[in-house]
Structure formats: structure tokens, C-alpha cells
Specification:
This is Alpha/beta hydrolase. It holds the Pfam family Abhydrolase_1. With 300 residues, the protein is α/β, with parallel strands linked by helices. It has a single domain, classed as 3-Layer(aba) Sandwich (Rossmann fold). 42% of the residues lie in helices and 17% in strands. Strand 7, helix 10 and strand 8 form a beta-alpha-beta unit. Helix 6 crosses helix 9.
Amino acid sequence: MEDLADLYPGFASRYVATKAGRLFARIGGRRAPLLLAHGFPQTGAIWHRIAPALAERFTVVIPDLRGYGWSAAPESQGGAGYTKRVMGSDLVALMEELGHARFAFAGHDRGARIGYRLALDHPGRLTQLALLDIIPTFAVWAAMEAGEDAAPHWRFLAEPEPGPERKIAEHPQAYYEDLLRNWSKAKSLDVFDPRALAHYRAGWGDPSRIHASCEDYRAGAGQDRQADEADLAAARTIDCSTHLLASSDYLSKHGREEPLAVWRRSFAPEATGVTIDSGHFLAEENPEATGAALQAFLAG
């Protein structure tokens, strides 16, 4: 770990104790708080190309989620320790420890799933919510059950323990690198900063983190989907302004329904959105457009 490059010069490093164990976070800037949450199979390093500009206007907090990066990877079975409700509570605890009772939230991939679950579970907590390249969990599973094959890794990673853990552990670097490559617009690892790739690779061979990522997806297949369906039945919606940043070559090409339409008919009836010319990794593949879109939304 000591040999990994510091992608956030000028940012403070902090460990904060939570029920999950210690969460690692980078913190930079001084103004209104903004939390940036990464997705699978990465770490907080994903934001390094846009965080410095955001830190000119916000106090930017960039955690590694539980089970990822330098944060604790607690034991779990059946997804119980990696529900988005539990992971959202981690981030509430982190932000409260840093002195932020309310904050803006931008999340990519799994981090975005934590963001919308946190918004539904903790009304009034978020001032704004930016979702990078997702539709709700219930909608992903509904699409797959309707015969769409948009996210085959969801089924694989959610298989019972220890099946996927053992398969990934045979060649972890190859497995995760293939995901990054295939989900990028260029179908190449060249879109990533080699220093960021080193951060991601540092944890990919760790059995506890392989297990954590599988538990993350098991939660998606079970408890997270159930939480979505319960909120749909109760007609609950997100109470803060919500903005979707959808990639042109990943999310926007998956499913028969426009991603923004899914949000508007479910949890965010007034959601706005923009399409970014990118594969799935918006903040790394097209940091200029992604940063500008976030700045414009957060300024509103």
C-alpha cells in the first residue's frame, strides 16, 4: 500500500470508526459538504480527475466504501453486511463525525445505489443527489427477468457463497480488468490512469474484499431489491433534487426504457438528467464533461 501514488495531493487523509470498522476517506476544500461515493470494482480513487475542481467550491469527502480500498471489510453472509441501507448508515456516520449533518451526494455505480437508498431512508439528510450511470436496483432485476442480458455479472456475483469467490480468486486481476475494459467505451484499460489502476489492483486479490464485493451483489439480489419494492409500494420518493448522469455507451444502451424515465416513474419524479459521451466510468473516461455536469447541477 505504501507504494501507491497519492492521487489527492493537498487533501487530508482520515480514518473514521463506524459499526463496520474504520472507513478511510480523503477530504479537501472548505465550503458546503459534498460526498463522492465510488462503485464496483474500484475505490475512492475514481474521482481524482474531477475532485480538485470540486474542492474549490465544496468540502469534498471521498471515502472508500466498506469492503473496498483501505476501509474495513466486515464479515457477512447472505448480503446482510453489505445492504445499501447499512452502507448508507456508514456514510451518515462518517459525515456526522466530520461535522456535516446535511450534505450533497454524488455516487457512481454501487455508490449511487447507496446514495438513493440513503435519500429514501433518511429524508432531509441530502441537499442534492447526483446519480452516475445507474437505474434503480429493482429495475435492473426486472429487466433481467424479462430476458434482457444487460448485467450478467449481477447474477454471477449474487450466487451463493463460496461459488463466485472461488472462481474470481483463481484469476482476480484478469476478472476485474475484463470488467473495466468491457464497460469502457474504448474497450481498453488505457482510459484509466495507471496510478489509479494500481489502487484498484491492490485489493483485487484479497479474499476478504472479493467476498465483500460478492456480498454487495447478494444484497442487491435480496435485501436491496426488497427495500426498493417496499418503497415503491408505499409511493416513497426522494425529497431532494436529483440528477442523472448517464453514459452514452453503457447505461443508455441497456434496456428498452430510457434511464431517466425509470427514475421519473419510480423514486425521483422530478429528476433531471444529462448524457455523457463515455463508457461506464464517466469521471475517468470523460472528466471534463462529467465535472462540468456535476458543477452545473450542484450550483442550482
